[in-house]
Amino acid sequence: DAGVTQSPTHLIKTRGQHVTLRCSPISGHKSVSWYQQVLGQGPQFIFQYYEKEERGRGNFPDRFSARQFPNYSSELNVNALLLGDSALYLCASSFIERTSGNTIYFGEGSWLTVV
Amino acid sequence: SQQGEEDPQALSIQEGENATMNCSYKTSINNLQWYRQNSGRGLVHLILIRSNEREKHSGRLRVTLDTSKKSSSLLITASRAADTASYFCATGRGGSNYKLTFGKGTLLTVNP
After folding, report:
1. Share of chain B above pLDDT 70, in %
2. Tens of pLDDT, residues B73-98
3. What is the full DSSP assignment across B40-66?
4. Which one of A35, A42, A106 has the shortest CB-CB distance to B104?
């Protein structure tokens, strides 16, 4: 079975532009979360979606938005890109909403460079 | 802000030696998960330990959890060069624990 898949793997954008990152969870997983990892740091939680509804949001500005589709895949959108948005964006999926006792699986990430 | 803090920040050992990494956290948790990350790649799940568990094993990995001290340790026995990676602990809290909170990680280098 395929793991969590993300696209694109690498991309370069200019300040002020918009970016869309995509994620397909593991088959059967209904919860998708997004994390941002800047160089030298651990991942930071951005969003969680479950059954197409936003269930949690981290401390990120409104330039960040996401959605989940009926097939449970997800998109992360970032508007008005800043240099500081350069990071590895990780998507994670889990079987049920709560992390209690449930393994959370991560994809390989999308490397975003803003110039 | 990040709840977990891994210690040490960097660890260099020889193949065959054991590697121990520690993680401390600040608030109550429901579970703690350890992940490995090779340079520039995604996170690979290693072990999940629940708050009512004290120790878990998986192959060459042993994880302990001490909720009274709010700390966990990851032991890798008989290390290999392929174990070279960054290791992160991530905590999930009770209630709305859909979110994992990560530390900054320990960079482990295993020299052949």
Report:
1. 91
2. 999 999 999 999 999 999 886 444 46
3. TS-EEEEEEEETT--EEEETTEEEEEE
4. A42
Write the DSSP string, A9-54.
SEEEE-TT--EEEEEEPPTT--EEEEEEE-TTS--EEEEEEETTEE
Provide the b/e sequence for A4-27 (b: ≥16 CB within 10 Å): bebeeeeeebeeeeebebebbbbe
Identify residue A37 by its one-letter amino acid code.
Q
| Rounded Cα gap, residues B102 and B25, in angstroms | 10
Most confident of A88-102, B2-16, B65-79: B65-79
CB < 8 Å from A in window 14-73 of B: 30-31, 33, 35, 40-45, 48, 50
List pLDDT tens digits, range A105-115.
999 999 999 99
Q: Is B100 close to A43, i.e. CB distance below 8 A?
A: yes
Among A33, A56, A99, select the one facing B31 at the smallest CB separation: A99
Chain A CB contacts of B42 below 8 Å: 4, 6, 90, 106-109
B109 class by beta-carbon count within 10 Å (0-12 exposed, 13-18 middle, 19+ buried): middle
The answer to whether the CB of B20 falls within 8 A of the CB of B86 is: no
**What pLDDT, in 10s, does the model give residues A86-106?**
999 999 998 865 545 678 899
pLDDT band at B1 (very low <50, low <70, confident <90, very high): very low
In this predicted structure, the answer to whether residue B69 has a pLDDT above a threshold of 70 is yes
